[in-house]
Each structure stands twice: as structure tokens, then as C-alpha cells.
Protein 1
Amino acid sequence: MTGDVTVISGPSGVGKGTVVRALASAHPQVWVSISATTRPPRVGERDGVDYFFIDDAAFDELIANDGLLEWATVHRSARYGTPAAPVEAAVAAGRRVILEIELQGARQVRDRLPGARYVFLAPPSDEALRDRLTGRGTETPDQVARRMETAAIELAARNEFDHIVVNDDLGQAVAELVELLGL
Ligand code: 5GP
């Protein structure tokens, strides 16, 4: 599969979702992959919009059928993966494809799509990230601790990426992505 694929990774809490949504709403040629996950929906999340919320058996079946471009267990709890067929269809349709995924998944995509663009979204500082992870209010203290643990691993991998965009100001981060993607 060739085409225009951008992988956006970075620690959870850095604001990947917000940045990607802002980019997509301003640029209709951008197509954002919807992941499958075994984690339960948060309040306000919609099936088929934010994620495809599926159970473990359905996730196993996707893996067995080679239906995922990549997948990973995140924060030692739920599994997340990128359904392959919609990505292939979007690439075939000439869309600018964005995968917003964590580090382990980004590494798998790099093996399969070495020609894709790899962007690391970084927090302005470790403290800013901790504040965001704590302040989201949707996670228990145990979940926040696990997210910080994962974040430390992810931050250490930033140099594996082609580009680093610091998410200090939303508009600025989106503008940098627009430039990188040539939109
Ligand atoms: P959350 O549960 O906060 O929505 O997402 C947790 C983490 O999973 C985030 O870092 C997010 O980028 C990542 N993630 C979401 N979808 C996928 C996916 O399809 N594959 C991988 N590897 N990670 C994903």
C-alpha cells in the first residue's frame, strides 16, 4: 500500500485527539482512521465515531482474519487496533490518511509502511503532561499512574519519529501539521 499516510503518536494526554480533530475539520481531504478498542466507551463517546467499541472475542477475530494494520495493548488494560480495510479504501480514494495511535502501533506501521510520515506530538513539558493526565478527571489515580508510566516510555521514543510537533498552542500545532502534510 502506498499513498499519503501520516502516523501521529505521542503520550496519552498530550492532546492528539484534539489536534487531529481540529486538523480534519479544517481540511476535508484529511481522513482519520477510526480504531477498534476493547475499552468501554467514556461518557459522550459514540460507537463508530470515536471508536468501534468491540469485545475481546471480536478483537480476536479481527486479528485472526488479518483485519488490523496494527494493534497493541495499552496501559496494560485494553486492546486498540487500526482496521486495515478502511485505511486501504481511503488511500485508494486519494485521501490524506491519518492514524492517531500509540508507540507500539506506530512501530508496527513503520514495518509495514516505511514510506509513511511519522509525527510525534510532544507536551511542552513533563509537568504539563502530568497536569493534563490528572486534570482530565475521567481516570482513577491508579489509571493516571499507569498512564504516566506509559508516557515516560513514549517520551523516550520521540527521536524514532521524522518530525516532532510540540503541542503548546492548539492553533500552532495544527499549523505545523498543515505545513508538514502540505495541505
Ligand atoms: P484512549 O483510551 O485515551 O482513547 O487512548 C489510549 C491510547 O491508545 C492513546 O494513546 C491512543 O492514541 C491510542 N490508540 C487509539 N487507537 C489506537 C489504535 O488503533 N492503535 C494503537 N496502537 N493505539 C491506539
Protein 2
Amino acid sequence: MTREVLVYSDKQALVEAAFASILDRIRSAIAQRQTCSIALSGGSTPQPLYAALAHVDLPWHQIQIFWGDERYVPASHPDSNYGMTKRVWLDLVPIPAENVHPMPTNLASPQLAADEYDRQIRANFGLEAGSIPVFDIVLLGMGDDGHTASLFPHTAALSVLDRLVTVGEKDGQPRLTVTFPLINQARSVIFLVSGASKQTALAAVFALTGDETIYPSRSIRPQDELLWLLDAAAADGLVT
Ligand code: 6PG
């Protein structure tokens, strides 16, 4: 694993850097393998990045879009990660509908939805049970508590290592989330972290020792590349 930590003066510079980094990795994946698979993060930080990607000329038919986590709400709900991404980006580009893979949030239970998404991922990658797909890019955010995707502190999802997708939980509300094995198999994992509220968790995640059940982002150790893109507000005082 190669780990790189890059700090930018403010959120706009951070988003511009993330835009360039992701474009570079998308084009490289397509040049090498004629396809690029991306698992997107949710939350608010990536929204301007997604809006910027709506204005790029890419071979959209060669790009497969997945999500790393989702709130268990309809796409029309204001909390939907898919709904946000669709509104600011995917509705504005000619990506084939079959290339966009939202997490199902309309099944009888979150567990059934997690099982179904696990199946969809395996089908898309042509994988047998037990194999782990190699995503080209997994984009992650980090919460003020050090969670990533919907892998929250002290939750059962942190221990799910035999599935690609499981049910997370935040404040009693179910979430769907990819698991650590899926994330850590990726060619490139990119964290996008902005704002002073992330300082404490970042320091704990970067500390030489610490409890991964308290700060789950500590468990992100991809096979190949781990790229931390931070703004100065989030990185203030950080020893990298
Ligand atoms: C989600 C996310 C989550 C997010 C962090 C940071 O669905 O909320 O995927 O992991 O990336 O909570 O969220 P912000 O970018 O809003 O700070």
C-alpha cells in the first residue's frame, strides 16, 4: 500500500484537487482495462465534486457507478446519497442507466437490500461467492466520529468480513454499507475530508496506535493506494 496525504488551503482547492485526482484515475483505469468501477461516498463534502464531474467529457459507457453506503430512504428523500448524486451529476451526463447501481432501499428489510446489493456487485464483476471485487476507485468521507461509509463506531458492521455489503446503523437508523474487505481490495481509496470538525477524529485515525472500533477509518488499508485529500481546516495540527 502507498499512502499519500495532501492538504489544500480551503475546500474549493480540495475539491479541485479531488476532481483532478479522480479524473486521472478514471482515465487510467479505462486506458488499462477499458472500464472503470467507482464506489461513491455520500454526505455533503463530495457534492461540489460531483457537480464538477457533470461537466466533463468522459466515455460514460465505460464507467460503472456504485455507492459505498446509503441511508435506508427512497431516492426522493433529501437524505438519499443516490438522490443527491443523481440530481447534481448523473442526470446531467449521458451515462447508460445500466451503469448506475444505486443501493436498493425499497425492499422489505435493510438486510434483504444488503444481500441484494451484494449479489448485484458480484454479478457486475462476474464473481463467484467468496471472491472480492477490485474496484478501481472507492471514494470515502469521514465523519466527525471517525466513521467512514456507514461503518460507525462500536457497530456490528465493523466485524462483517465475509460479505461485500452489510447493514450499518447510525442513531438507531439503518444504513447500507460496503464492508472493509470490499474497500481494502480497491486499487485506489480516496478520502475527501474537509472542515475543523474532523480534526479530532483525523488525529486519532492517524495516530500510531488506537482502537479501530472507536475510529473505524483506521481500518482502511487498501491493497494499493490510499490517498487522503484534506483541507487545512481539517488537517490543522495533524501529524502525518
Ligand atoms: C454518508 C457517508 C458518510 C460521510 C461522512 C462525512 O452517507 O453520510 O457516506 O460516510 O462520508 O459522514 O460526511 P460529510 O461529508 O457530510 O461531512
Protein 3
Amino acid sequence: MLFDNSYQNLPQDFFERINPVPVKDPQLIIFNNDLGRSLGIDQKINKKELANIFSGNEILKGSSPIALAYAGHQFGNFVNQLGDGRAVLLGEVSTPNQERFDMQLKGSGQTRFSRQGDGRSPLGPVIREYVVSEAMNALGIPSTRSLAAVTTGEKVFREVILPGGILTRIAKSHIRVGTFEYFATQKNTENLKTLADYTIKRHFLSLKDVANPYLSLLEIVSERQIELISKWMGVGFIHGVMNTDNTSIVGETIDYGPCAFMDEYNPSTVFSSIDAHGRYAFGNQPLIAQWNMACFANSLLGLIDKDTEKATSKAQKVINNFPNKMSEAVMSVMCKKIGLDSTKTNSQEALTKLLRIMLDNKSDYTLTFRYLSEIIKGKRDSLFKQQFLEHNQISNWLKEWKELIKDQNLAKKEIALSMESSNPVFIPRNHLVERAIEAAVENNDFSEMKTLLTILSKPYEEQSKYGEYMKPPKPLEVVHQTFCGT
Ligand code: AMP
Ligand code: MG
């Protein structure tokens, strides 16, 4: 594996040089072989050594760990210094395909950004992030990846005593909207410009020679957010903490905290225990993405134009265009789920109607769409209808929908394939993730986690052996709240 660290060539204020704090007894839970191979990691390293490396007890040749500085708006309130308080960037891995990825340890001990925190992570959040980020990737949604997870052999003290864990995260970037806010709020235009230029050079090289690269940066980052959040909406993913420090500049899902997938469809669904007012509810996510991009715009103003009024007017245009573009993207993702062309008004109406009926009937978001895809293939509609308490309305809707499908004059096989590729069979349902966490934390048993990972690596394929994992929770299994657990 080759390290080629560029972030640490930036000025001192961008980071702190700090090694991970060694842990007592690291044990490997899991290593992601496929991902490791793509990063050029030697496949012959034994488990003990993997545990040493991915706990931070051993620093690899070429790695030069740093903790990154950033700020951020948390639940709408600005915090001028956050930063990697429990994580270190081991370095940037240059892959055999000439790509560059950050390799980060999460739960690796205190840094100068830890504030009151211990810099550690309990095992539960490590398991959750590993499973959910890998599932997101397999669902085709941009996400940071998980390369390894270890237990530390140390206890972490929260409200209760918990076993500690460390996650190795792979990301295209750890630059966040909050990184820009960090320098913007300090009015440090020089560092802000250095950050923007670095971001463009590393991630958006095509912007280098455009007329106003910083305005174009705002545009492209907004587009990435639109693409990302519309995909979240299509699978019922709720991030839970869409703060600007958790908003990646490259449009990857990052910082899996109290995230969760919705079972019954309801746009007001919130799981996070810290989201008391539902700011980050499922249906609010498109709006919050716009809010976050407005923060990004604000921090770029000084670079967009020296004349503040002109800069504001240019940035405002991008932000004003955001809602329409977002609606279009969400509509496109959602209409694909029902096999219809999103640019047609009657497709959009059919979708709106279906969602209304699903809301009234507490239908399962995943199964309803999946079973709808099967009707096209000539299967009976009973499984689909079972997702509704009352059948009159949905039967009428089905009749109308079948007409719309017919009017498209496309081969049914084609429509079915397209629908199936956007309607997963398996998602990391909360009760399944909780079950895997419980087995890991209570009994040091990682088999449930590994089974979940196997199933979720092919989320769009029927896997008859795992039928139970398709199902929504039974009443006693329902998870009502999720926790950051940091
Ligand atoms: P997050 O929950 O990942 O969005 O984290 C928000 C901020 O809190 C980041 O600056 C983290 O580094 C910091 N943080 C969270 N948990 C801890 C911890 N246990 N120790 C130190 N810093 C933490
Ligand atoms: Mg964070």
C-alpha cells in the first residue's frame, strides 16, 4: 500500500500532527478484503497484525497521522471549532488505479479537538457504521467505506460501561462544509483560498480553468448533494445529524451516527434521540441540504467576488435554483421506483397518490415498491396489497398505474429490470442492526454482523435463504430511537 499524503502540506492551522493513542488488546473483528484489495493492501497480513495496524498500535510506513480542523453548524447553531476529536487521518492511499483515498481511524484517542471527549468510541457505533456504510455502498449510494473494525480490549465510560472499538474508514475526502466555515469565520481569506484551491485540485480538477472556480465549486458541491440526498430518499435512509460538519464536499454519505432506515413510510420519521424537533426528519432532508449549501455559499462569498453584493447575488442564484433541481432529482429517483417517466405530470401524480395511500396505510417503504416491481413480471398482486390495511384505494391506484405503464410502450421486461434495480429487497433495518450490535456488545459475537453484511452486499437480489431479513420488525422488535453513542 502506497501513502501519498497531501493534506499535511497545507498550512499548520489545517490540522494537528498526532498519533493514535495505543490500545490495550486490539482484536480484529473484520477486515474488508475486497476493499483492501482495491486499495493495494497486501492480502497476506495476518489477523494479529491487521489488529495492530487498524487499532493504531502500529503505524504503517508512509503514514503520518493528523487530526483535521473544522467547524460546523450543529442543529442550526454555529460551533467555531469542532475537528477530529476522536479520529485521525492515517494518510492518503494512492491505489493501483491511481485514485486517492483517505484512511482514517475513528475512536483512536484524544486530539487537540477532543474538547471534553475521551476520543474513544464504544463498539456499538463502530458496528453500526461498518454495516450501514457498506450497505449504502452496495445500494449504489455514494458513501465512505469501512475497511476494518477492531475491539480495543478497553472499556469506554458512557452512561454505562461499554467495550471499546475502532473503525477504519475510507473516504474520497474528509473535507466538509464545516472545514470551509472554519476559516471563513476566522476571516482567514488566505487559508480559505488555500482550502478551496486544494479542494478543486484534488476533487474537481475540471474547475481549475473556469471563469469563476469558486462559484463553480458551490455549484458542483450543490449538485453532488442533490444527487446524494435524492438517493437517500429513494431507499428511506435518514442520516439523523445533517450538520454542516457532517456534509462532505464530495457528496459522500459521511459520519454515520444515529442514522436509520425507515420501515413504515412517513416523511416525519425521526429516530435520533438528539433530534427533539425533527429538524433532520426523513422528509426534511432535501430542505436541510439546501440550508447546508447556503452555509457553504456564505463561507465562499469572499472568494466568489471581492464585491460582497455581487458575490451574494451570484451565490444566491445557485441557492435559489437548488429546490427545483432537488425536486426534479427526487422525482426522478422516485418515479423510477414505480417504473414511470418522471418528466410526465401523470407519473408525478401517480407517485404522489401512492405515497399518500402508503402514509394512510403505514405501508412498508421497502417491500411496497419491491412487490410492485414483481407485478410487472406477471406475479399476483397479493404481496403488494398486503402492505395496505384497506384495499379499495390501492386497487384503484393499481388499475391507473397499469394504464400508465401500458401507455409507455416499453417492454415489460425492461421496466421490471429498471424497477428492480431501484427497489431493494434488503435494507439494514434498524431491528437487524440493533440485533447485530447487541450480540457484539453483550457476547463478543460478530456472526450476526457478518450475516447482515453478506445479505446486504447484494441488496437488489432475492436471497430466498434469508427471507426473514426482508421483513419489517414485529411489534416487539420495533426500534423507536437511535443514539449517537459517542
Ligand atoms: P459527530 O458526532 O461525528 O458529528 O461529532 C461531532 C464532534 O464531536 C466532532 O468534532 C467529533 O470529533 C467530536 N466527538 C464526538 N465524540 C467524541 C469523543 N468521544 N471524544 C472526543 N470528541 C468527540
Ligand atoms: Mg461528525
